[in-house]
Amino acid sequence: MNKKYDGKETFAQWQESWKLEDRYNFKTIEKKWQAIWDEEKAYHVEPDEKKDKFYALVEFPYPSGAGLHVGHPRSYTALDVISRKKRMQGFNVLYPMGFDAFGLPAENYAIKTGVHPAVSTAANIATFTNQLKSLGFCFDWDRCISTCDPEYYKWTQWMFIKFFEKGLAYKDKIAINWCPSCKVGLANEEVVNGCCERCGAQVVRKDKEQWMIAITKYADRLINDLDDLDFIDRVKSQQVNWIGRSEGAELDFKFGDDKLTVFTTRPDTAFGVTYMVLAPEHEFVQKYMGKFDNQAEIKAYVEATAKKSDLQRTQDDSKTGVELKGIKAINPFNGKEIPVFISDYVLTGYGTGAIMAVPAHDQRDYDFAKVFNLPIIQVLDGGNIAEKAFEEDGPHINSSFLDGMNKEDGMKAAIDYAVEKGFGRSKVNFKLRDWVFSRQRYWGEPIPMVYCEHCGWQPIPEAELPLKLPEVPDYHPNDEGESPLSKAGDWLYTKCPKCGAKARRETDTMPNWAGSSWYFLRYCDPHNDKEFASKEALDYWMNVDWYNGGMEHTTLHLLYSRFWHKFLYDCGLVSTKEPYNKRTSHGMILAENGEKMSKSRGNVINPDDIVAAYGADTFRLYEMFIGPFDQVAMWSDESLMGVYRFVGKVYNLFKKVYKDIVPSDKDLRAMHKCILEVTERIDQMKFNTAVSSLMTYVNYLSGLDKIAPELYSTLLKLMTPFTPHLAEEMWARLGNGNLIIDAEWPQGDKALAQDDVVTIAVQICGKMRGTVEVPANASKEDVEKAAMTLDNVMRQIEGKEIRKVIVVPNKICNIVV
RNA sequence: GCGAGCGUGGUGAAAUUGGUAGACACGCCAGAUUUAGGUUCUGGUGCCGCAAGGUUUAAGAGUUCGAGUCUCUUCGCUCGCACCA
């Protein structure tokens, strides 16, 4: 540990002993302090009832072969800054790190090279760990976890079984999004513009048996519970949008011997229905096929639709379709017979896969009606339906008992009528679909289920967890969509846990969103082998107080993990409804020309190079100074140099510190101003301006001949979150025997930060005409009097009548003439 | 199309939330020191003008004693969702 200044030598001699002729040598300083932190376990935390806890969380990385990207440290440094400050303010801070280690790249690498994913992943984790340590984050490395560790995924599997037991995990044959390139099924959330989020290949539909998790059962709660959370608005609105709640009604139309049920948000427009449309996949199309007059035409259209990808189906908004000739539907509101069509503009997965068409008040129906020459009946007054559908609100017309009503009354009356006559009911629908949870891949958690011919799907007994990944001869998935685990030989077959008959294991694995759905809980108690985490640990550490991560996870990981946590809450396994109190998001870091950094463009900045050339402290400080935290930022080597110069200046300032110097009032003013600004700006994540406050203060200190120790040690404390190594080093050089991270965060004093003379702007009719210096908090009259003495003011008001003078204390004086 | 947001010097950006626009930094210019230079230090730097001064926050209008900030219109950009009935 540090030698402490014991007063046996003069401070000047002590300072001399630090070889002041040396330039700022970040390499030795950073290595030295990283070793000390490691050795002293400076960042290890345990629950401590005497202290308030603070749980800071950043999204753990996927340990890719490419190593750490400059984007990762933006988020990590931000919460490192917050964590360090909170710790110095007396909180017991948990700031953990781990690895989201299951995933496709490791598997693709294995296919190419034959190296087992476990081997390459372990090597990558080692690299990442070194890189993260070289940046000096205050992670508690004793709590490091990895989702591919059997001791970890044991509990992921255990939780899956809970989902199964509660009926929320079920197997279903559905048309899924199939990526023909990755040969894997994707969740809706993983499909971007009809393409695979990962590889960009066009996604096709494929019917497959899949494990599903019923996230839709939580749709309402996932929306409503957002109200009490401190999430940035962008995140809230994107989640609300994605879940896509709409209120309306289901209505039953007569069709053949059946009821044809539709969902509509406007049941009050039912008198304007002139036709109906089914999705080509709708069950009635096949059921009644024998009764249609134009079967060949219908079959051809159904086939053509099946061949289309989702992208083709949605990109082309021209309306096509075929009438189901031979059967008419009957509108239950007025008994009218109406034609029924199939068309691909009706989606099979939303609502009931069928709609009632109101062409007068829905542009899509209007377009379709124009193509097929169908009648258009206006039922809401307004607009010009000769040109286009009228989609706004107006009083009902041509609608029997609804005539004259507004939307609200009309809705209520229409639903009441439908309920009374037994052909309808109010209904809420969501865009959100159940979570497709199967992946036809090797490097993921095995789904702990077996299939028995007598007993159906059965979970394996808890005692057999973790169900470890078996060795396989070959990691290739195949075109039929069979997982590599189907080649796992003996592993495949086992006994049915219920009847003991021969049973076959599930060969699909979990998506890599599984492990990350609950990792924040494991951090609370990472070595527990009896439970996923003890109740005591969870009660002390949860909730996460502040979670920072990328916007790209808003409708994926963030939504999934909120859902997962709510499920655990319902099972009585956690005691809070939501896992995260606060969610913020960082902007991406782009290359110098504004392009995305990518290997193929060759413009990737490697953090290791920056650390080697300028040091971790400069790198961290630069990432905080680069621009507003929540916005995209462009990397700039020149700006980085500016920050490096600043760090060097702070180092050199030590040479001007003298033990017996007493700070002046002006010095204290600068210091307290800096404390107040930095403290506030860190809390608001305005890191860029927090750094500029530090720069202003340092510029001030540079102007002094001799610096009082108090002024310098305060600077060091304020810089600890940003440049922890330098702060520790200089703190030690000031003669302190403890770590600066264990020092107290300085208290800013507003009164001491107040200037005694203020400059007031003098305006005439709102135009700036000059400034005057007056004592702080000068009276209105004094300010006015001083303002009148300005040459420029006297000239401007000469011969004019002064109508009003507005004085804002310490700010402005506006003379109205 | 719908939803969210943005537009300020040569560049990255500030602006106490309606009160001196351009803090802080990069770059540039000039000077000093120096190993020839990259280093370091000092001063200058929105635009027009020698200056006094004028002018300036995408464009236009409005509210106000006062607008980068609030309201409306137009233009431009970014992100998310997208035939969701």
Question: Could you give a short description of this structure?
Answer:
The protein is of the alpha/beta class. 35% of the residues lie in helices and 17% in strands.
What keywords describe this structure?
RNA-binding; 5-stranded parallel beta sheet; 817 residues
Describe the structure.
The strands form 9 sheets. This protein has a 5-stranded parallel sheet. Strands 11, 12, 15, 16 and 19 form a 5-stranded antiparallel sheet that branches. The chain has 26 helices and 32 strands. Strand 21 and strand 22 form a beta hairpin. It has 817 residues and is α/β, with parallel strands linked by helices. The protein starts with 10 loop residues before the first helix and ends with a strand. It binds one RNA strand of 85 nucleotides through helix 8, strand 12, strand 18, helix 12 and strand 28.
Supply the helix-strand structural class.
alpha/beta
**Rg on CA atoms, Å:** 34 Å
Task: Tally the beta strands.
Answer: 32
Shape: globular
How far apart the termini lie comes to 70 Å
Share of β-strand residues = 15-25%
What fraction, in percent, of the residue positions are helical? 25-40%
Q: Kindly report the average pLDDT value.
A: 92
